[in-house]
Amino acid sequence: MHLAHNVFHLFAEGVNIIPILSDPFGYGWNLFGTANLNMAPLLTMESMKIIQMGLVVLGYFTAVYVGYKISLSISSDKKAAFGSFLPILLLMIIFTIINLWILDIPMLHRH
User: Fold this and answer.
1) pTM for the complete prediction?
2) I need a surface site. Which of 50, 83, 97, 111 has the fewest CB within 10 A?
3) What's the confidence (pLDDT) of residue 42?
4) Do residues 11 and 42 lie in contact, with contact meaning Cβ atoms separated by under 8 Å?
5) How many H helices and E strands in the chain?
6) Any idea where the domains of the chain sit in the sequence?
7) For residue 57, what is the enclosing H or E element?
8) Which of 61, 62, 49, 44 is nearest to 100 (CA)?
9) Mean pLDDT of 100-104
10) Is the Cβ–Cβ distance between 109 and 84 less than 8 Å?
11) In angstroms, how far is CA 96 from the centroid of its own chain?
12) For residues 33 and 55, what is the distance between their CA atoms, to the nearest angstrom?
């Protein structure tokens, strides 16, 4: 979820590094001639949302796989391992649904 959240900051706000490099301390400098440059985000909001959702789902499946492997390493019986893993699986499903819902809420800009 952390990586998915920061995709927005990287692709939408990351382009602002170019004007900041011309005036790093906010003194009105224009060292590289890019201080007043206004750049568009690298990706559209729809593209960023798809990437974010994909990262959350990928993280969910990775967590399920790793969690199940850990439960198998603790218990040699597959049925007992799955039984001990089931509560964690349900918790991961709930967290994934909550994370997808949070990502779907429109983000208000701080500017």
Assistant:
1) 0.72
2) 111
3) 85
4) yes
5) 4, 0
6) 2-104
7) helix 45-74
8) 49
9) 87
10) no
11) 12
12) 37
